[in-house]
Amino acid sequence: MSAYFPFQECSPYAAHLYDAEDANTPMRVLPGLCGDYCSDYWLHCRYTLSLLLEDLGSPQHFANLTATIEEDRRRFCDFLELKDKQYCYPNVLTDAELNANLGLVREDPKGCLEVCLQEVANGLRNPVAMIHADDGSHRFFVAEQLGYVWVYLANGSRIDRPFLNLTQAVLSSPWTGDERGFLCIALHPRFTTVRKAYVYYSVSVKKEERIRISEFSLSEHDDNQLDHSSERTILEVVEPASNHNGGQLLFGHDGYLYIFTGDGGRAGDPFGKFGNSQNKSALLGKVLRIDVDNNDEGVPYGIPSDNPFIGEQGARPEIYAYGVRNMWRCSIDRGDPATGAGRGRMFCGDVGQNKYEEIDLIIKGRRLQDICLLFFLFFLP
């Protein structure tokens, strides 16, 4: 009997094998077996079940479970069998349709791409961001919501000491759905020479919730650690509610830092006379653009000279675009490999309320609701 089936969590069809697609049913602890295979497994190897289960939970719980089912083939296979004959193990490995061109990146007739996924890190707790050093070292950094940032080397190993540890400062809670915490990290676009990193996280100041954007310098003695004493607070914005914290930081091709804030929380953008998102005197619900290199006179940041609302009465000069609800992650278009067309365009996913989600193209000076809804991800009933 093959001992390979317990490791099907790496299968591209793991969601089927572990019955993880239906939120109303408990996820299986082992992949589902085909009926004939389960009968053979029971006949030849049933006493190995306890060994497979011993690391998955309470040893006593699984000891009691296996003792009650291993002598009864029907109960044994009720526990392990997956009724779907196409996706059960080992049929899923030999099904011609499921395995045709598996792993190849290609377009289907409608232009959609198949995407291959590869695990590069595990054992993380609520990872929220991953960035590349882009300095020739082939390192990458993974941030956790609790306030850790870890360094992974080119060989896949993780350095024991965190790149950054802000767990004592970050505002978070044990609540599973808490949107606060350490939300993003970005490296200076000239990181090889300007050895600085920028972070976005939630804090509590005199019992007032805020989002904080800070700058850290790389340690003079260790390229795999930031100097924790070097923190320079660039911007703080009061958060009237605990949700809709935004959370994206990135540098554009223009070298400026873009900050994506949420609208302040609750449903319907209720704060202020007409909410935050459409209010250009508020920094919440916005795409902000600042110059982190222009602070010679002690100011925390400079304002790019072509920011769209400079000089407009009542408008904050940091604002690049407005009408944002809760943009969580954004990406910059690398452009067509041959022509460069589209290079530098910025796309962001904005979290919807109860009708739809959207992906927006960020255009300087525009109100995002006017830009148009580029892509409907799903509709709720």
How would you describe this structure in keywords?
381 residues, 22% strand, disordered C terminus, four-stranded antiparallel beta sheet, alpha+beta, 2 domains, Neuraminidase
In a few lines, what is going on in this structure?
This protein is an alpha+beta fold.
Describe the structure.
With 381 residues, this protein is α+β, with helices and mostly antiparallel strands. It has 2 domains: 5-99, no CATH class; 127-371, Neuraminidase (6 Propeller), CATH 2.120.10. Helix content is 13%, strand content 22%. The chain has helices at residues 14-17, 35-45, 49-53, 59-69, 73-80, 91-94, 96-99, 368-371; strands at 127-132, 140-144, 148-152, 164-165, 182-187, 196-205, 208-217, 232-238, 248-251, 257-260, 286-290, 319-322, 327-332, 346-350, 358-361. The protein has a 4-stranded antiparallel β-sheet with strand order 1-2-3-4, with no helix packed on it. InterPro entries: 6-blade_b-propeller_TolB-like, Glc/Sorbosone_DH, Quinoprot_gluc/sorb_DH_b-prop. Residues 124-366 form the Glucose/Sorbosone dehydrogenase domain. Pfam families: GSDH.
Which shape, going by the Cα principal axes?
Answer: elongated
Bin the strand percentage: 15-25%
Topology as a string of helices (H) and strands (E): HHHHHHHEEEEEEEEEEEEEEEH
Give me the number of helical elements.
8
Strand order in the sheet with the most strands: 1-2-3-4
- For this structure, the quaternary state is single chain
Average pLDDT score? 87
Distance between the ends: 47 Å
Give the C-alpha Rg. 25 Å
Helix content percent band? 10-25%
CATH class label of the largest domain: Mainly Beta
Given as residue ranges, the uncertain stretches (5+ residues, pLDDT < 50) are 369-381
Identify the CATH architecture of the largest domain.
6 Propeller
Number of strands: 15
| Number of spatially distinct domains | 2
Please give the largest β-sheet: 4 strands, antiparallel
Helix/sheet category:
alpha+beta
